[in-house]
Amino acid sequence: MSVALPSSWTEAPIGTLCVNTEQVTPDAEAEFIYVDIASVDRETKKITSPQRMLGKDAPSRARKLIKTGDTIVSTTRPNLNAVALVDQTLVWCLKSKHQIMVLAARATDAKMVSALLCHTNGLGSSL
């Protein structure tokens, strides 16, 4: 079944919404929040278990900065549909640079992008 989009909308592949986020190296003694695939609750679509750690304890893959309004999507096992909208409670937050991609919700409606991804039955080949 096909649904007509409002004339102000544009249909685009999901890959066109992805951004290459800023890569940073945390200071050894600075505390930050780390998000990986295990941090995302697949049922509630929320980041429920981020880890607080010092830069010196960070895994080497903890390098990509995520911001409020970003939608993160697991690329390791997309069929598990580990998707979450980054909310304002996550400040100075890094994610794994290999397991999760970030969608450029800054240029679109962040909640809408997140909702669409959360309500698919796994992303599979969409990525």
Salient structural properties:
four-stranded antiparallel beta sheet; Adenine-n6-DNA-methyltransferase TaqI, Chain A, domain 2; mainly beta; four-stranded mixed beta sheet; 127 residues; 10 strands; disordered C terminus; 1 helix
Question: How are the elements arranged and paired?
Answer:
Elements: E1 18-19, E2 31-35, E3 40-41, E4 46-47, E5 51-54, E6 62-66, E7 71-74, E8 83-85, E9 93-96, E10 100-103, H1 110-118
Question: Could you characterize what this model shows?
Answer:
The structure is a single chain. The chain has about 130 residues and is mainly β. It has a single domain, classed as Adenine-n6-DNA-methyltransferase TaqI, Chain A, domain 2 (Alpha-Beta Complex), CATH 3.90.220. It is built from one helix and ten strands; from the N terminus they run E-E-E-E-E-E-E-E-E-E-H. The protein has one helix at about 110-120; strands at about 20, 30-35, 40, 45, 50-55, 60-65, 70-75, 85, 95, 100-105. A four-stranded antiparallel beta sheet has the order 1-10-7-8, with helices on one face. A four-stranded mixed beta sheet has the order 5-2-9-6, with no helix packed on it. The longest helix is centred in the last third of the chain and has 9 residues, at about 110-120. It is elongated and about 55 Å long. Residues about 120-125 have low confidence and may be disordered.
